[in-house]
Predict the 3D structure of the following.
Amino acid sequence: RHNITVKAVPYSSPAMAASLAPRILARACAAPAFGLRAAASSSAKAGAERRVAVVLSGCGVYDGTELHEASAVMVHLSRNHAKYSLFAPDIDQHHVVDHLSGKEMNEKRNVLKESARIGRGDVTALDKLSVGDFDAVIFPGGFGAAKNLSSFAFDGANCKVNADVQKTLKGFHAAKKPIGLCCIAPALAAKTIEGCQVTMGKGPETAGKRFPFADTTTQVKAMNNGSSHVDHDVNEIHVDQKNRVVTTPAFMCDTAIHEVHDGIGKMVSEVLKLAK
């Protein structure tokens, strides 16, 4: 809300006031036209920017997308002058978790509708995504990537990947367009793209207390498809140049939120660099 002070103009006569009125009206009418021209110019500029698809898996770390990671992805894309569109599969969540108690709830929720909470209502069903419309794709983490986009949380190396997710990953890979993933989402690429290199943080040998999900990394090698895990800290990224896959640990590390944000920023920047 803006406080606007209106300063009275002392007119010497009604005639002077009448002569000024058309000029004031003309300026007022011209203002919106200027705004429209500026918006059109901005839109034209945006058309030349990188277009990135962001795939969500619900809303909430325990049964969907990790919100801070999704937000960090969007902020860094925006800061780097990239245009992004949000997608999610139109399927039921595996289950619903009470994020206060951590207990499973006896209800059903839809991944697409829950993802709309993050996108402020602007999200599209994943089966409508066309690889040709985008320069890159990014998957934020959260357990939804391992429960809704795949069964990695339950089946580990033997997991199944959702058909639309698999189609998306294979499509961008075949088109040699970069793929970014963070947190537990790199497991999707490791399972789908044979011989892929990813990071989800540190393995059991080097993790310490900072990486409570370190055992998860061993499941990548156990997939037996040539994919491998490379240890990295939360503020680092791993770039698989051959497959154009960029990954970062994010909240696989128990750390301060700004470190997660910084690591995701590096991942986004590298994805955009590879998209040029």
Summary: The radius of gyration is 24 Å.
